[in-house]
UniProtKB/TrEMBL annotation:
PANTHER family: PHENYLALANINE--TRNA LIGASE, MITOCHONDRIAL, PHENYLALANYL-TRNA SYNTHETASE. The gene is pheS. GO terms for molecular function: ATP binding; metal ion binding; phenylalanine-tRNA ligase activity; tRNA binding. Coiled coil: none annotated. Tetramer of two alpha and two beta subunits. The lineage of its organism: unclassified sequences, metagenomes, ecological metagenomes. One of its GO terms (biological process) is phenylalanyl-tRNA aminoacylation. Its main location: cytoplasm. Residues 113-334 form the Aminoacyl-transfer RNA synthetases class-II family profile domain. This is Phenylalanine--tRNA ligase alpha subunit. Its cofactor is Mg(2+). It is found in: Cytoplasm. It comes from mine drainage metagenome. PROSITE patterns: AA_TRNA_LIGASE_II. Belongs to the class-II aminoacyl-tRNA synthetase family. Phe-tRNA synthetase alpha subunit type 1 subfamily.
Amino acid sequence: MSALQPQLDDLAQRLRAGANAVQDIAALEELRVRYLGRSGEVTLVRRGIGALPPAERPDAGKLINDAVAQMEALLDEAKARIARGALDEELERRIDVTFPAPEAALGSIHPVRRIIEEISEAFKQLGFATVLGAEVEPSYYTFDALNIPADHPAREGFDSFFITPELLLRPHTSPMQIRTMQAHRPPVAILAPGRCFRRDAVDARHLFQFHQVEGLLVAEGMHFGHLKGALAYLSRTLFGPEQRVRFRPSYFPFTEPSAEVDTTCPKCKGNGESCSMCGGSGWIEIGGAGMVHPNVLREVGYDPAVVSGWAFGVGVERIALARYEIDDIRRLIESDTDFLRQLQ
């Protein structure tokens, strides 16, 4: 019992010296564990109480508890000192409040959305209205009203996404052409942008979900020259004032005559010399077009002897590939912010 007090005083003195020396919370915690932890020096002293006579044990326990309280107070003081030092260090930092702040990171319109908006705004200048529709359409508006025969491959399950035998995810935005003509008498001038779905294998040039913009103009006296002028205007809006367009004969059930539409390659400017974008041809395809088929006009209650019309459809992602010189269409849907930031 007589040797216990000096032993506790020695522990307290050594702990005080250690507490005054530590400079961070981690070192202070190591010091606490060394003295007051489960296997610390104070614990070893407690275990010696069992060797004392029973009459001395309560007094010995009280001495140890008082010593522990003193040691804990020393540790608390050291902790408060370290905290004050950290605060003082933080307050001593000099901040130039007049220095320009870092530029805020802002989002931007997705390239696909930007192209749709540019096309819509350009044709708005020509008096076209933009119409939007559902992405799930009946077969009637998707095929029947567009003069697409019952045996056409697009009506098969391996080409389109059917939900029921009569409902499907629209493979084009043409249903909005039919709905608009049924709701309004000519003249009609609309753009129909939107998301479309086809059972295409995904690769560098194809997606099963993509965006399309279709245009339709029906009025008296419309002819193919008007269509060519509109598509030249579209091409120059997207790629620059020097763009030219050409038509290649094609076939679509809903137009007659029909054509594939090309524009001069925006990368080589139509030269075609060793151009990776156009393959040396000097031209890139941007969509399909033609004069609205008389059967389509009759289906919506128009008289093809009185009015005529033209229509076109372009793939927005295809345009983005050419406009931004992107090598893989899948990059447009990967949400890679570093890539998209380059296209702002």
